[in-house]
Design goal:
The chain is of the alpha/beta class. The chain is about 40% helix and about 25% strand. It has two domains: about 250 residues, Alpha-Beta Barrel (TIM Barrel), CATH 3.20.20.70; about 70 residues, Arc Repressor Mutant, subunit A. A nine-stranded mixed sheet has the order 9-10-8-7-6-5-4-1-11, sandwiched between helices.
């Protein structure tokens, strides 16, 4: 195998469980509601087949992280999770310190189920709490209350050493002082990691329809920036600074699987609607699978995989992705790796211009990083560097 410049950034497996109890109005993820029980045994068999198909193309890898995302993976039975993890470990070598994350919703959390996930091999849980305010939870279409969310968090903390949860801010009608109080309450829960996202209107969601109809009003740019600035200030004061534009952690508690994405590592995407970036020969290939769960299932049972699209990325596309992902991190990027991917160096003149504006900086180790002032305009910084 020809060595690719991203081969040393890790090898992960993303498994997509596409089912939810209900569809949230802001969500554009590949999630589906089923009113009849899902045949989990049949899906496990299909996951196994698709994993085997990828393994035949990617021999000799060592898995450093596994992420069970969705949808709502905590709707899976523990034996379903166990079957998927056994398929991964029976196919590739697995690092002794592998990180295995499962996403969970507070409505599907119970102590016995979490104990089963832990026994199956899960060692990190990420809870989709989204808000600690009951009125806002209802507006966001969530099925749990703030009290239920905190109860679920306590169960998770009792079962796992590594726990994270998500919150959404800059919500319709949200007051900045209320967010300060909510965020401090979240940071007081004794967890190691928080994912904090500004509410955005995504295409083809119910929120987009309401927004276009004038029935959903979001904070303006200046107010949204104030929410962002307050978020950074409070998290830093609590010892959980941002290591990525939307993710905060205590030192050493960063999400390793997500770091693999942002450091432009290699990962297999398994399941309905999963995306992957794999390296075969000297090419980096983007893969995506059929989104509809039952159609994906039929494809895997027929062909051994549900891949619909597969594209060998050009050096230019790799360079763009590398910048887009890596500059999200406070650690920045290795400029030499950009050159190895693209065959050209970043434009020093553009870097100097952005540095004069206070938007980027060269770290002592030579890495190029976006500054605190640059993160709110990250897309523009990336576009300038990629041009």
């Amino acid at each position: 195998m020809v060595r690719h410049p991203t081969r040393d950034a890790g090898f992960g497996v993303y498994v997509h469980w596409p089912f939810c109890l209900s569809k949230c109005p802001y969500c554009d993820f590949n999630s589906h509601v089923r009113h009849q029980p899902v045949d989990q045994a049949r899906f496990v068999a299909a996951f196994r087949r698709e994993i085997d198909s990828f393994a035949a193309r990617l021999p000799g890898r060592t898995v450093t992280s596994i992420f069970l995302g969705g949808g709502t993976p905590s709707l899976m039975k523990p034996e379903t999770v166990e079957g998927i993890l056994e398929a991964v470990s029976g196919t590739w070598a697995v690092a002794p310190d592998v990180e295995v994350t499962l996403e969970a919703n507070p409505t599907s959390v119970e102590a016995e189920r979490f104990a089963g996930y832990r026994a199956a091999g899960v060692n990190r849980v990420s809870l989709g709490i989204q808000a600690l305010d009951d009125a806002d939870l209802r507006r966001l279409g969530r099925l749990h209350s703030a009290a239920e969310a905190l109860d679920a968090l306590r169960i998770a903390v009792s079962q796992f050493d590594r726990v994270s949860f998500d919150l959404i801010y800059a919500r319709p009608g949200q007051d900045l002082d209320a967010w300060r109080h909510e965020l401090r309450a979240a940071l007081g829960q004794g967890i190691e990691h928080l994912s904090l996202y500004q509410l955005t209107i995504e295409p083809d969601t119910w929120f987009e329809r309401l927004y276009k109809a004038g029935q959903l009003v979001l904070p303006g740019p200046d107010e949204a920036r104030a929410f962002y600035d307050v978020t950074q200030e409070i998290c830093e004061a609590h010892g959980m600074p941002a290591y990525e534009i939307s993710n905060h952690a205590r030192p050493g508690a960063e999400a390793r699987h997500n770091l693999l994405y942002w450091r432009y590592g290699e990962y297999v995407g398994v399941g309905p609607g999963a995306h992957g970036r794999i390296v075969t020969g000297n090419a980096r290939i983007a893969t995506s699978t059929e989104r509809h769960p039952e159609t994906w299932l039929a494809l895997v049972e027929r062909d051994g995989h549900g891949i619909l699209d597969e594209e060998a990325l050009s050096s230019e596309a790799e360079g763009d992705e590398f910048l887009l992902m890596g500059l999200r991190l406070t650690e920045g990027i290795d400029r030499g790796r950009f050159t190895a991917l693209t065959g050209r160096a970043l434009d020093e003149g553009r870097i100097e211009d952005l540095a004069r504006e206070g938007l980027v900086a060269l770290r002592p180790d030579g890495r190029l990083a976006v500054t605190a002032a640059g993160f709110p305009v990250l897309d523009a910084v990336v576009a300038d560097l990629a041009a």
